[in-house]
Amino acid sequence: MRYDSPLTPAILSRRYKRFLADVMLADGTVLTVHTPNTGSMLGCSEPGSRIWIRDSGNRNRKYPWTWEITETADGVLVGVNTALSNRLVREGIESGVIEELSGYDTVRGEVCYGNERSRIDLLLEGKGGRCYVEVKNVTAAREGFAFFPDAPTARGVKHLRELAETVRKGDRAVLLFCVQREDVHAVRPADHIDSEYGRTLRAAAAQGVELVAYRAKVSPREIWLDASLPVHLGEMA
Fold first, then answer.
1. Shared domain check, 89 and 71
2. Pair 128, 168: CB distance under 8 Å
3. Are residues 213 and 154 in the same domain?
4. Which of 9, 59, 135, 151 is the most exposed place for a label (fewest CB within 10 A)?
């Protein structure tokens, strides 16, 4: 995915009210920008961090600028816009990068399903049947491992239950971790943050939910998925 125009660098002053952040541009201009991330942004929202923001060009928006990328203390670029994950995964499917999800004729997004009235991120359909794909954006990392979630997530636990039920009904279900950073070699559940999510993830995998992870290359001009990662179900030390 290529941005329509290069992103603008800024310095993060603070993130607050979950979806807002104050930033300073190189010329000293202070802006309040939209933060499209529902998690804690652990390690990606430290005051003083260098970040990149995008001007939507929509002056009808109260906050037309959007926070897209953070540079960590170690110099790693991390894509923090969770709204991009589905797009990146869909591009990866359609381009053939995500080999595990090849062979389907159609891809639809945000389809209602399940007993708990969820919406699946991507529904793949073809002669071989249906595949329900739930996408999780991953930004947190430690010692070479990406981990999810970065904050307790009852919604994420519900999604795992729905995926497991989908398998029991005879369809294929995949949980795909979209890791928007390049400095990791595997993905793990964050039991130290949400132990219930970790337990439910392992139970879902035992019931046939497939766990897939792909890593993205991140730059201020474009982001794309380029490599698969293993998912380790052992607890982080």
1. no
2. no
3. yes
4. 59
